[in-house]
Amino acid sequence: MNTISPVSVHGGHSGQFCHHASNTLEEIVQEYIRRGFPWVGITEHVPAISEQLLYPDQRAAGLTPEFLYDRFGKYMLECRRLQRKYADSIDIFAAMEIETYSGYETFIPQLISTFQPDYLVGSVHFVDDMGFDYSPEQYQRTAEAVGGLDALYCRYFDQQHEMIGLLQPAVVGHFDLIRIFDPDYADRILKPAIMDRIRRNLALIRDLDLIMDFNLRSLLKGASEPYISLPILKMAHEMGIAVVPGDDSHGLDSVAANMERAIAILDGMGFDTNWRQPKLLEY
User: Fold this and answer.
1) Cα separation values, 197 from 59, 129, 166, 184, Å
2) Domain map of the chain by residue range?
3) Do 259 and 1 meet the contact criterion of CB atoms below 8 Å apart?
4) 220 DSSP 8-state letter
5) Angle, to 10 degrees, between the axis of helix 149-167 and the axis of helix 136-146?
């Protein structure tokens, strides 16, 4: 394992540009360098498209879509500066983590055109424009609104499939995030209606030759395994899909957190640990 380099296809959220993170982006980049990362994807969240789709903590802090848009522009400028400043020490990708909500199919291409990120992380944090990953209470409310937990999973994977096909993000973020507050997820994902959607989405990821983010943030929140859960991870391996660690860091305390565990899992399962880099967008 000592010969396998740590990398992250999904990370680098900083308190400078993300309300629920900490530390400056430069401090976080310096920590990646200190820990021997040859490359890292900095993948800040895109700004909210509307007041209605702000996160609860953003709304409580009085943030607006206009403020977040302006801050995202500053993020891209700073990330490009750090790319140049530390080019001799680390390869930095200035990327962005997208959202999947009403209007994203035009909003995200507009952001791409304006800010020209190196690549996209395709994530789903909303189902039918309702958040689900902020708290157990929000999760339950959204599940009830769509007809229960099984229906929530089905809608999540349907929206994910649509997003992957439409935007073809180089990296698919935390594939099974929908399990976040479900203690019974290990059984639920095996239900035919849900598993059929998982297989379908994996097949599309394979056909488009995208990377899956082996996201470690769940471990910091007390989960027993990263996103992707083991049965799905085995399927991804059988399909020949590239899976690459993502620390989803939100400050210095989570840079490379649980990275050795992630590398051991992926290496033990036979994944290629000469980590594939994301395909860069062309302009």
Assistant:
1) 33, 20, 17, 18
2) 8-269
3) no
4) H
5) 90
Residue 132 to residue 146: CA distance in whole angstroms: 11
Angle of the 230-238 helix axis to the 192-208 helix axis, nearest 10: 40
Name, in order, each residue with C-beta under 8 angstroms of 188's C-beta and a sequence gap of 6 or more. Answer: 149, 150, 153, 179, 182, 194
Distance CA(220)–CA(197), nearest Å, equals 27
Question: Cα torsion at 154, 159, 160, 164 (round to 10°)?
Answer: 140
Q: How far is Cα 113 from Cα 116, in angstroms, rounded to an integer?
A: 6
pTM exceeding 0.85: yes
Cβ-based neighbour number of residue 215 at 10 Å: 26
> With contact defined as beta carbons under 8 Å apart, do 237 and 271 qualify?
yes
> Which CATH number is 8-269's, of 3.20.20.140, 3.30.70.790, 3.40.190.10, 3.10.310.10?
3.20.20.140
pLDDT in tens, 14-70: 999 988 899 999 999 999 999 999 999 999 999 999 999 998 889 999 999 999 999
Distance CA 181, CA 179 (A): 6
